[in-house]
Fold this sequence. Notes:
Number of helices of chain B: 6
Shape of chain B: globular
Number of helices of chain A: 17
Largest interface: A-B, 66 and 60 residues
CATH class of the largest domain in chain A: Alpha Beta
Structural class of chain A: alpha+beta
Helix content of chain B: 25-40%
Oligomer: heterodimer
Radius of gyration of chain A: 27 Å
CATH architecture of the largest domain in chain B: Roll
CATH topology of the largest domain in chain A: Aldehyde Oxidoreductase, domain 4
Amino acid sequence: MAKSSTVTKPRDILGNSALRPDGAHKVQGSFEFTSDMHAENMLWGATLRSPHPYANIISIDTSAALALSGVHCVITADDVPGKPTYGLISSDQPVFAKNVVRYMGEPVAAVAADHPETCRRALALIKVVYEVLTPLTNPEDAIAGSFDPIHPDGNIIRHQRILRGDQSISAEVVVEGEYIIGMQDQAFLGLEAALAIPDSDGQGLHLHVATQWLHEDLTQISACLNLPAEKIRLTLGGVGGAFGAREDISLQVHCCLLALKAGRPIKMQYSREESFFGHVHRHPATIFMRHHADTNGKIVKIDARFVFDGGAYTSTSPAVLINGITHTQGPYKCVNATVDGYAVRTNNPPCGAMRGFGVVQACFAHESQMDKIAAAVGKSPVDIRLINAMVTGDPLITGQIMESVAPVSRCITETNAIPLPAPLGETVNELSLPGGSGLTASRSNIVRGIGWGVSMKNLMYSEGFDDYATARCTLKDGIASLKFATSEVGQGFVTLAPQIARSVLGVDEVILEPIDTHIGSAGSTSASRQTWMSGGAVDGACRLVRERLFHHVGKQHSIDPLRLIIDGTDVVDQVGSFRISVAEASDGIEISETFEHHHRATEELDENGQGNCHTAFAFVAHRAVVDVDPELGLVKVVQIATAQDVGRVLNPLSAIGQLEGGIAQGLGLAVMEEIVMKDGKVRNPSFTDYLLPTALDAPDVVAVMIEEYEPQAPLGAKGIGEPPCISVTPAIVAAIRNAIGKDIERIPVRPQDICL
Amino acid sequence: MSANEFYSLQVNGKNMPVQDSWIGESLLYVLRERLGLPGTKGACEQGECGSCTVLMDGDAVCACLVMAATAVNSEITTVEGITSESALTDVQQSFVEEGAVQCGFCTPGLIVAVHHLLEKNPSPSELEVKEAISGNICRCTGYGRVFAAVEATIRSRNEVK
């Protein structure tokens, strides 16, 4: 391309591919992640964890550890000055286990020492005497009541049913299946890390932490430390991905306790093995579904039973359960439903938030069912989905009316219009074959399959929770400053926020102030919500500032401020000839406004699962093409075609990154990623044994963004983070079934599920 | 911690003394914690994820798998050594412009790996690119924009010729 100095670069406003403001630092290695932080006089912290899934603690002797040279302190449950437990929904998880450990990896003690190796040796010197108990590992035992409560709050975390329409109706076609979803790990690259720096008076501290939600951390930490919230400051350290795993407390309280006890800064950083034990995972689930359909394949009724294994502590299990069961129908019309759902407590690792949040599990079940209906009535996977596709205004099985823009049919037809990949050549590089290099897939054995998945995903929080977001905008001398507590975990809000300010205020230079607790909450970076919520807050704050700027300009130049608009980087009288640059108009003044964005109110479900519990929804379709070696049970995902309902594209480069990244995670769940459990013990807590998609596993992704402006959304844009990883998983499994002609009802699909 | 070892490493063309270290420290730890070079990231400690990719005598290696004290006679290049003070390299520029950076934790390792690839093989095929970076796990991007960044770099280098 010819380079010319006269070409003006388009302004980085909404709709353009503005580049990440932290991009240059990240490619140079100079971006400071939390694990890169140092403080003078700093010590290292480390955690001792239970080797048993379920055991009584008879005694803990820390004397030998304390006697080790270089060790500064050792803390246990006895050293927690405030509330002994924490939790996002129910405060049922101990900071340190006191008399009993309920999962393998539960924290028992922590040490502070001068070197990570000293920490490791000190942990080995702590003598814990356990009385090992038989763990509760089968969720059905929790439901049946056949196991004594493993926690004072009981073994059932939440039970909810949905009863809608005619409970006894059936139809000509009945298909059913029991679907099993394995435990997936978020596997962010940047391990859990924090740096706690005690105040010089020992009465408070400053915690730098990689988290999804600073204010929620602050609330929980403050209670456990028995310190008023104003004595604790939280600043977001550089975050290396999150995907739900940083919504719960992990090392925050431990790090603060060590810092206060040692009177010195403490840095904690998990190893990869510890990370597998230190954060919650995606819930493993067993879902039974029975669909009743007419001879055309139109859904008449759905019966379903969900069992989510919440593991030892509550985390977000109650909300995951509600998300799962309220998405039983998927993006399809359904007027009759009988759904029973449980989230239960076991001695397996605690499970909570992961991208897709309960809907991933439901979608694998309902999409597998759609293909069974299609086969039963002799229709194609595309036609069966089009026949049943939901539209705006349809009632959901909760009685809530679908008020979001719902371009389900368009998602399907536009995906279907994407060309299929070329057939596999007769001679191909072995790297392109299922299994890749070093495995022995033979070209002549390879069969190709095509499969579909379509999904609906709620956006923002549900059930009456007001997860508002706060932002402040300050305009001074033509420069806007933005302040918010929105966690940047890699998703790109730090790119989007300045785009909003430039669009609304006509500025070019935007300064982002530190992301910390010196402003109101932004809510969590989860539930596909920050573009909508924090985007709405930044937009609102900028609009308030703009209004005051117009008043200021109007007063100075005797123009009715209502006639003023922003045109590019100027304030313009839209019915006259007056024009002044924003820089000049704001010269010498400072206008600052704070705005809280609240989404519309939602409500809790009643005992029959009825109620307007969700805020809004987004939709997406995926078509997968796979090559399978049926003898070896190996799969190569060749292409993913997708059309996603995004409302409006605010940054094309960021948007495609979300779609492709989510697809890779959904691919992982489909064919490789699973935390393998045996008797409550994790068998593969490492990247050697927990397999993640690599560059060679990445399929070609062909994506279409469906832009139908969402009137409810402040910027017209829906959240786009979660949908990409939801229906791609059932699409890949359907493609494997299509290739080998065998029913598969569990994910991830393992070689033995294909070839045995 | 008994920490009384002394040795020197050759990092990014400089002789860097390592003082008071424990002999069991990995190259990753020494680079990050003792030599003030935190650009090299640790994410798996098992050589599986490539976040700690550095060049050792011209080979791409995982710094987490190298004992620092065994690297005394090697030339080590980290992402900081690839980075110039004045401007981004073409690979770095392409990563930013093509959207290959999200959380950025895998990025320094990928930058080293891609520089290494293009030095050894200026015109890699698509499959050669994928193989060359298959040891670098990225959890955010799904690799699509990473491929685009490598392609853009190759394209721009060909245009310059």
